[in-house]
From TrEMBL:
<comment type="pathway">
    <text>Lipid metabolism; fatty acid beta-oxidation.</text>
</comment>
<dbReference type="GO" id="GO:0004095">
    <property type="term" value="F:carnitine O-palmitoyltransferase activity"/>
</dbReference>
<dbReference type="InterPro" id="IPR023213">
    <property type="entry name" value="CAT-like_dom_sf"/>
</dbReference>
<keyword id="KW-0443">Lipid metabolism</keyword>
<dbReference type="GO" id="GO:0006635">
    <property type="term" value="P:fatty acid beta-oxidation"/>
</dbReference>
<keyword id="KW-0808">Transferase</keyword>
<comment type="similarity">
    <text>Belongs to the carnitine/choline acetyltransferase family.</text>
</comment>
<dbReference type="InterPro" id="IPR039551">
    <property type="entry name" value="Cho/carn_acyl_trans"/>
</dbReference>
<keyword id="KW-0276">Fatty acid metabolism</keyword>
<keyword id="KW-0813">Transport</keyword>
<keyword id="KW-0012">Acyltransferase</keyword>
<dbReference type="GO" id="GO:0009437">
    <property type="term" value="P:carnitine metabolic process"/>
</dbReference>
<feature type="transmembrane region" description="Helical">
    <location>
        <begin position="105"/>
        <end position="127"/>
    </location>
</feature>
<dbReference type="Pfam" id="PF00755">
    <property type="entry name" value="Carn_acyltransf"/>
</dbReference>
<keyword id="KW-0496">Mitochondrion</keyword>
<protein>
    <recommendedName>
        <fullName>carnitine O-palmitoyltransferase</fullName>
        <ecNumber>2.3.1.21</ecNumber>
    </recommendedName>
</protein>
<dbReference type="InterPro" id="IPR032476">
    <property type="entry name" value="CPT_N"/>
</dbReference>
Amino acid sequence: MAEAHQAVAFQFTVTPDGIDLHLCHEALRQIYLSGLHSWKKRFIRFKNGVMTGVYPGSPSGLLVVLVGYMSTTKYAKIDPSLGIFTKLSTHIPISKYVTEEGQRIVGGVLVGTGLWITVTFVMRNILKCLLSWHGWMFSRHGSLSLRKKIWLVLVKLFSGPKPMLYSFQSSLPRLPVPSVKDTVRRYLESARPLMDDEQYKRMEGLAKDFEKNLGPKLQWYVKLKSWWTSNYVSDWWEEYIYLRGRGPIMVNSNYYAMDFLYVIPTSLQAARAGNSIHAIMMYRRKLDRAQIKPLMVLNTIPMCSSQYERMFNTSRVPGVEADVLQHVNESRHIGVFHKGRFYKVWMFYDGRLLLPREIEQQIERILVDKSEPQPGEELLAALTAGDRVPWAKARSQFFSRGKNKQSLDAVEKAAFFVTLDDTEQRYEPDNPVQSLDSYAKSLLHGKCYDRWFDKSFNLIVFKNGTMGLNAEHSWADAPVIGHLWEHVLSSDPVRLGYTEDGHCKGNPHPNLPGPQRLQWDIPEECQTVINSSLKVAQTLADDVDMHIFPFSDFGKGLIKKCKTSPDGFIQIALQLAHFRAKGKFCLTYEASMTRLFREGRTETVRSCTTQTCDFVRAVMNEKATREEKLKLLKVAAEKHQDLYRLAMTGGGIDRHLFCLYLVSKYLGEDSAFLKEV
């Protein structure tokens, strides 16, 4: 094991002749390489911090400014220090220490650097002002007005060359706070289709009273928070919507991602794990070096990248009242679960990342391990699947010292978690619905004890080589983990590939230390808590009624040809389906992202609109003509798109209402309107 090799780096024996010292050169070499890797990483982080801090300026830009300034002042015969040293010399005898030529050079460098900093600051703030305009989003799709063209050119001009992942963070605008009047009006508009005239009149009265009396007082506090923080919603959203939830995060919060449905690169579980784990670690390396390009709308408009920061080395730690997100800067291992046993697998050896075939070698060693789980070990992860309070108390009582703490640290501080599932899942063309139902349910909750749901994400590799992800939600939203998953799926069969017999390319390592089996000492009292959590989780999992089927009749291409938004089309179809099944409309949530703003996460699009209801009623009305239905569909889809644009540009209502409600609770104010909302 890696720790064992380092622990015996030196040995000594006391003899009558003195101390006999023995050094293990291989172990010392590994320690040296590990330290070298750590210092390289620190240097890269420091360099990237500097590069991001001065963006859209750059060191090369500084050099150009300095050379240009010094050349200009020399040609014009102007003092490059602009008289700074002349003024200083009246108080300090500078000429004793610095020659006249030295004063010219130092002065030129200082003034030139100041000029460069000023230009960078101006460019950054101009870019921030440009990005605060969102009129481009409300123009007709496919049309490009002169104003929009000029704006895009200016954004491109002030964005600077070759941005890194976090380059635009300080240039992104803050999420604006809508007015109480606008939020109340939009809320009433969204609630109208769900209420009869009497209910709506009552709600209208509550809304007007709130807008006139309590609303302005709460709004003042929300605005104060928006001036003081980077984003007036995100920290409260993370805390109260995610971390303060005391129910199970399995099913209720965690989500999943599937593998290719129609591509099967290999059926070897260890080989698929080897390539995928290597691809994930390569992605982490790019993330650490900020080499991933920021997501850009229209290849020009940057989106916030802050959610990437906690993708790796992160775990949700349970608390009695609220959980916390634990993130470590460096983690050189992963946690692995197989048939009730936990392992710690080092990802580095000889100062480098393990190659895919070497990772496959480590996974093979785990798969052939015949050892039995220790008492309580097999079901241990059920603690992360049940209610949070029992897990928090058990963690404090049974996992705060000794081998349990060391093993739990190995899991929680791992780069990510891997489950080598002993079941087989795959899309079967002859049995599409049942196979996809089983596959999705396995990714969502598994057996309720074979995923560590607190980790930022779990890579799940099934016995037949199919794989997927299960991701914890509090640290980021799905598009961020989706970016990682796209990288893995594109790297796995194409860039990395497999041999003819299905193994990873390359050769096993002859001297690679094996995985470390984690040791636990779980008393019967703790096992009782584990079993209780498992029962809660299994009840929840059994309550999940999931049905998935492939739809191949048409896709978004045909919808776009009809000049309709695919998203709007699907949301309207959902409303129609619900009305046909239930005979009524219901409040509907669709998430949009607000990453056009700094630290933006999501906003709600209330997709049950009056226009959509009009279309649904027309479809259900046999007397309505095809032309009438089509016209109403277009109107409903356009309304939905307008709501989506408003949500993306800070004009949504639900996050604003959420913050107003929290402030009312902090102030001890009771609001009938906010309670109803």
